[in-house]
Write a structure and sequence with these properties.
seven-stranded mixed sheet, about 200 residues, alpha/beta, Rossmann fold
Length: about 200
């Protein structure tokens, strides 16, 4: 599906639609970081990686995505960038990083809880941070029709409390959540974050 979105240009619309939430997430995750390395899990066409690697405090930014055409597009847009086509459920970087970011991806994975555990164990340095943004969750009832609307069979619908539990069970500390851009009919993007 995501490769089809890359071909149709929907990836660019997704980037625009998620821009505010991602800016909020990055502002929180990167504050007070004098220097850091960064991975975007489910990077799509690489728009977040391209943004972050321009920041003076960023030493290295990497994108990883399971959709071949998204990674191909990322490499065309950013020929010198670091992008990997891989299964997020099982992939691990060769070197751990300080910040792992993921926007609108984790609930598509076959086992989100195991992914969060793998990130804690194999992706993140000590005192590093995971920050995740989700629009599909139980409290955001407007999103509940998405699996049928999008024709996607694997979309895990968890509550905010269940997502919090996944972070804490994986070993993250200082776990917190908040919502971005909530409106009357939209509960907002759920942001979850924790420190290793």
């Amino acid at each position: 599906m995501f490769s089809e979105w890359a071909e149709s240009g929907r990836d660019e619309k997704m980037a625009q639609g998620h821009e505010d939430a991602v800016a909020n997430m990055l502002a929180f995750a990167l504050k007070d970081r004098a220097a850091y390395t960064f991975i975007d899990a489910g990077c799509g066409n690489g728009w977040v990686v391209r943004h972050v690697k321009k920041l003076p405090e960023c030493f290295a930014a990497t994108g990883v995505d399971g959709a071949p055409k998204m990674i191909k597009k990322a490499k065309v847009l950013d020929p010198n960038g670091s992008y990997f086509k891989a299964d997020l459920n099982t992939w691990s970087p060769k070197q751990k990083v300080d910040i792992v970011h993921s926007m609108e991806v984790v609930y598509y994975l076959s086992d989100p809880k195991s992914f969060i555990e793998n990130v804690h164990k194999n992706w993140i340095n000590e005192n590093g941070r995971l920050v995740v943004g989700l629009d599909f969750y139980k409290e955001n009832t407007t999103s509940h029709s998405w699996p049928e609307d999008c024709g996607v069979s694997v979309m895990h619908l968890f509550s905010e409390e269940e997502w919090l539990h996944f972070f804490k069970a994986a070993g993250f500390r200082a776990v917190q959540t908040w919502r971005v851009d909530a409106t009357e009919n939209w509960a907002g993007t759920l942001v979850l974050t924790g420190i290793k």
